[in-house]
Amino acid sequence: MRSTTACLLNGKALAEKIQGDLKELITILQPKIGRPPGLAVLMVGDDPASAVYVRNKERACAKLGMASFGHHFPGQTSQTELEKVIQELNQDPRVDGILVQLPLPPHLDSVALLHTIAPEKDADGLHPMNLGRLVRGESGLRSCTPAGVMRLLEEYQIEVAGKHAVVVGRSILVGKPLGLMLLKKNATVTIAHSRTQNLAEITRQADILIAAVGKPQFITGDMVKQGAVAIDVGINRIVKSDDNAILVGDLDFESVAPVADYITPVPGGIGPMTVAMLLYNTVLSYQDRQ
Ligand SMILES: Nc1nc2c(c(=O)[nH]1)N[C@@H](CN(C=O)c1ccc(C(=O)N[C@@H](CCC(=O)O)C(=O)O)cc1)CN2
């Protein structure tokens, strides 16, 4: 029996470091470009979690000296109205990055909206052009959460090449792009999902296990290989019996930490890295668009 517990991969600290570096870069670039980088955030409806994330993104922009252009629409806003606003933002010279906060109300077609964003302003890296560049291994704007996972692995010098990486979850936001990024770094990649049979058998083979299922504490210690790197992409708010809410990931931290060599916490792991990579993408577009 191991008496040690996993080393924490501190996404919060790395995100702060990245944001500090971006702030310095902006200070250098701004006098030459004559304006700060600008990020437009579109939110539709009143999902409370989305409202918190949007506010955090706007605060993060302000901290770095970036301009943010918030567009908050009522839940019943039409597809056409939103597409018109995105087209205007595509033409707005003050805007370097555009993102549509997800999830959207069910009457909206998120894929069609993402298509409307100019690929060079696609701060979330979800436009088919940027996803296509990722498939081809070309440079382009990368999806923020997967890019945050890769950057965190790099920071802790965790070797990916030749390792078996198992991604649990196949969303367009995380699972699919992350699988491609891991593949680009020469990992052997398995993407598991809700229809995967004998899931535990597969997760137990992972040198690097990424949980992106959206189910609280779904992956337990008995599903993890001894010495694995366990990355938690989930952020689930759970209301306890005393009515207090806590945040938990898709990993059951208590049982996974004693088995893994490295683990990301929730909060303080991949969440802050997502925001840092969003700001990074926006500054990249700012630089490239000059
Ligand atoms: N257009 C997008 N929509 C969504 C994305 C995305 O990347 N692009 N990801 C998630 C939500 N999200 C960003 O939008 C996000 C979620 C959580 C965090 C974060 O820093 N979480 C903190 C805890 C915050 C809290 O107290 O609630 C942490 O994990 O430490 C950042 C970004 C879905 N939608």
UniProtKB/TrEMBL annotation:
Gene source species: Aphanothece sacrum FPU1
Pathways involved: One-carbon metabolism; tetrahydrofolate interconversion
This protein's name: Bifunctional protein FolD
Superkingdom of source: Bacteria
Transmembrane feature ranges: none
Example of a GO MF term: methylenetetrahydrofolate dehydrogenase (NADP+) activity
Enzyme nomenclature, EC number: 1.5.1.5, 3.5.4.9
Flavoprotein keyword on record: no
Primary role: Catalyzes the oxidation of 5,10-methylenetetrahydrofolate to 5,10-methenyltetrahydrofolate and then the hydrolysis of 5,10-methenyltetrahydrofolate to 10-formyltetrahydrofolate.
Domain Tetrahydrofolate dehydrogenase/cyclohydrolase catalytic, first and last residues per copy: 9-124
UniProt GO cellular component terms: cytosol
Subunit structure: Homodimer.
Keywords, ordered alphabetically: Amino-acid biosynthesis, Histidine biosynthesis, Hydrolase, Methionine biosynthesis, Multifunctional enzyme, NADP, One-carbon metabolism, Oxidoreductase, Purine biosynthesis
Catalytic activity as recorded in UniProt: (6R)-5,10-methylene-5,6,7,8-tetrahydrofolate + NADP(+) = (6R)-5,10-methenyltetrahydrofolate + NADPH; (6R)-5,10-methenyltetrahydrofolate + H2O = (6R)-10-formyltetrahydrofolate + H(+)
